[in-house]
Predict the 3D structure of the following.
Amino acid sequence: MLSNKQLLEKYLRHDKKFPHLWCPGCGNGTILHAILLAIDAIGLKKDEIAMISGIGCSGRTPVYVDFNTLHTTHGRAVAFATGLKLAKPSLHVIVVMGDGDASAIGGNHLIHACRRNIDMTAIIYNNSIYGMTGGQYSPTTPYHAKATTATHGNIERPFDLAELVKTAGATFVARSTTYHVRQLTNLIEKALLHKGFSVVEVITHCPTTFGRRNKMPDPVTMVKWEKEIAVPIEKAKNMKPEELEGKITTGILVEKELPEYCEQYEEIIRQRMKKAKRGTKK
Amino acid sequence: MPSKKNNYKLMQGNEAVAQGAIDGGVRFFAGYPITPATEIAEILSNKLPEVGGKFIQMEDEIGSIAAIIGASIGGVKSLTATSGPGFSLMQENIGFACIAEIPIVIVNVMRGGPSTGLPTSPSQGDVMQARWGTHGDHPIIVLSASNVYQAYLLTIKAINFSEKYRNPVILLLDEVVAHMRARVLLPKKDEIEVLERIKPTVPPEWYVPYENNLTGVPPMAAFGDGYRYHVTGLVHDEKGFPTSKPDEVERGLRRIFEKIEKGFHEICMVKYHYLEDADFCIVAYGSVVLSSLSAIEELRKEGIKVGLLELNTLFPFPRFAFDKVLNFGIKGFLVPEMNLGQIYREVVRVTERKVPVKKFNKIYGELITPDEIIKEIKKF
């Protein structure tokens, strides 16, 4: 395994790209680290990786990494990725999104990508808030939590993103946190190796715009909170719903094999081209 | 002897667009059903696999344009087709393709608006939206087809321009042209010019993805070709990385306008009909061209000398054509449109009212007839 220094040298863009714009104590660096470890463990080639993002703090991830990188518009990363993957199925497509990016403005694209089962990996940085714009409530902000647009406490019930993509038909769904870095790396690795649409939801911490307003003003407190709320799926199976109140399940939540979209389309092309050729011969 | 007759085809405007897309090298289409553009999606969903291409029906028009931009970055010529409401949804990502310089073609079959409007009666209401629909100053190429045969040719032109200038190209059809059937003789394959985008030839470590050159259009690598670079909707430097340094911002933004200006005379396509001896000039585009030609025939029988300036390119606006027409000694312009005067105002702008400019407008979902044009000309 590469040392941290070797890992950074191998995968990060060093010219002009640093310092990064994430706040001190942000969890995004931890997620990026896990992604790079997973990529290195599998041995994917940099030329064959396309990393695509939307808008927000997560959206800046691709600019730092030495892959084919595409920073799209807010919420549309999965739709851009869909076109790219169909045009070039040999690429390993990794989509990184925030919670607002993936499930508010981009929610429609996300659920349809799940049902199509195109071979790509979506990694959702869920920090429960719109961080870049300064802390407005998102579809995953907990009930009664405070935000700049919910100063009296949020009265919308949050999405459980992993459950959402599971129901929408994703063939691999996993969840972890920025506290559980080893597990996170392992899950991303499995997601990258999965044939089909895979989603990894990462509960991450934003002390600056979320924690500060919700009695978790520093990164350590936030990471401890992640540790407390995480329940491995194996353990959760034997727990009562009231015991799971306020908790999140972690680990591999769904893993199944279903026909992959690009492969099915390639088969259609093979048949249609054969038929068209026969047609011209007569 | 093989009969030439057999090569004639009875074709609908939308069918001609689909055939033009295939012959122009499009191998990816993403779209969402909307009348009166749906036939283009239906035909391409069936035909693309035969030539190794792919079709996908996306969840909405935002996803459709996002997908074609993604596919184009993957190195595949890509196109989408829609109508008013879908065109509105696409606007944000048209701007993305402008600043990131991704070749794409958007076919907009115009129907009456605003909003759900008049589904699906003809209109030319989206002309200014095609020019200015996405936010921010941006370069754009807008073409307009006047008949079925042109729908075929201009689809190929739109693809070529998008690839050559690395810019989105919008092809406007009105519902009349899109659904009209006509007998057309398509050119042979070797008579069609199909352009491919310029790819980098330098080694990857030398590749500067947004570097200026004589044409103003940097070579474009496809993702996966070994040139790892960054594509973003943020204003970026020559390497493609976000910047807010005023000098880098200005240089980058100026270049994307200048590359279109450099191609101005190639991009601006117009046709001059019966103008040498004309006293009056009709300025028309889309299906109004057909009505205008019929009107001219009648008027000339009566001894009224009228000509037609047919606009196949709407933006950049072909101002040079008006100087030429004014030199013929024209005494007045008539601009009949199925909107309230979107191109009329452009004509006023470039002619500076050196001669009277009149408009004739219809916005209730019916096409403009030759009789109406005759009546308007006689009012001069």
Notes: Chain A has eleven helices and ten strands. The mean pLDDT of chain A is 96.
